[in-house]
Amino acid sequence: MIASIITPSHNSEQFIGQTIDSVIAQTYTNWEMIIVDDCSPDNSNAIIEEYIKKDNRIKLIKLDENSGAAVSRNRAMKEAKGRYIAFLDSDDYWHEEKLEKQIALMKDNDIALSFTAYDRVEESSSKFIDTQFVPTKVDYKTLLKQNIMGCLTVMYDTKKLGKVYMPNILRRQDYALWLKILKQVPYAHGLDKSLAYYRVRTSSISSNKIIASGYHWKVLRDIEKLPIYKAIYYFGWYTYKSIMKYK
Q1: pLDDT single digits (tens) 107-163
Q2: 89 vs 86, 170, 227, CA distance in Å?
Q3: Band of residue 203 on the pLDDT scale cut at 50, 70, 90
Q4: Residue 134 class from Cβ within 10 Å (0-12 exposed, 13-18 middle, 19+ buried)?
Q5: What pLDDT is recorded for position 213?
Q6: Does the structure show a pLDDT above 60 at 205?
Q7: What is the share, in percent, of the chain residues with pLDDT greater than 70?
Q8: Helices marked H in 4-157 — which ranges?
Q9: How far apart are CA 137 and CA 67, in angstroms?
């Protein structure tokens, strides 16, 4: 069974090589990696094309105009041929057993949506910061309180769900997708073993907690269409858990 790895790319020349290397090193070898370039002016495409010459499982799609991560990921999903859809951003990377262990979990337990624990590492040195542990399962209401599913760890089964696409919003589109799927299935199942590495980048919009909070609110109100009192309730939980997480 093919696993399709979805990777949006924009100005990723600094880290894309390590990202691709971590996929090539997977012990589960039946995969395709679909990288969608969002009009990068840097040298990232040249780096990707060198990898393509050596491994035909890697594919590159170039967008005609800068469109954002949601459009890039959706385009890759549209082209994907695999039963399993997995997500990996162009500055993150995986443990070599990530696909093997996660696919085994899903096959053995008849799971449609899964995620794993992951390590946070420093931007330039990849030095370990901490491990983000996860519960064995999470439902829709629990996820409304806090997004505990790291995008670089999530995988879903198209045989059970079909292809499910992200809403076209600037940020938090991955979180909105998990919520969308959890309206179809009762749980997302977590594997509490760190199988991925999230690079903490100081320039990332997610590092600005005020801006990130605004996009979280947008998901609750504009995408999930929660009544104002429910949105306030869940946003309160999100704020509390964010404070406790980084206290």
Answers
A1: 999 999 999 999 999 998 999 999 999 999 999 999 999 999 999 999 999 999 999
A2: 10, 15, 33
A3: low
A4: buried
A5: 87
A6: no
A7: 96
A8: 16-24, 44-54, 69-79, 98-109, 140-145
A9: 33
CA-closest candidate to residue 15, choices 198, 172, 153, 154: 198
Please report the beta strands in the chain, taking only residues with DSSP state E, as ranges in sequence order.
Answer: 3-9, 31-37, 58-62, 84-87, 93-94, 113-122, 128-132, 137-138, 155-157, 188-200
- Apex CA 165: angle with CA 94 and CA 205, to 5°? 60
In terms of C-beta density within 10 A (0-12 exposed, 13-18 middle, 19 or more buried), how is residue 175 classed? Answer: buried
pTM attached to this predicted model? 0.94
Mean pLDDT score of the chain, rounded to an integer? 94
Q: 223 vs 69, 91, 178, 227, CA distance in Å?
A: 17, 27, 12, 12
Q: Quote the Cα angle for 93-218-174, to 5°.
A: 25
Q: Which domains does the chain have, with CATH numbers?
A: 3-205 (3.90.550.10)
H-type alpha helices, 55-124: 69-79, 98-109
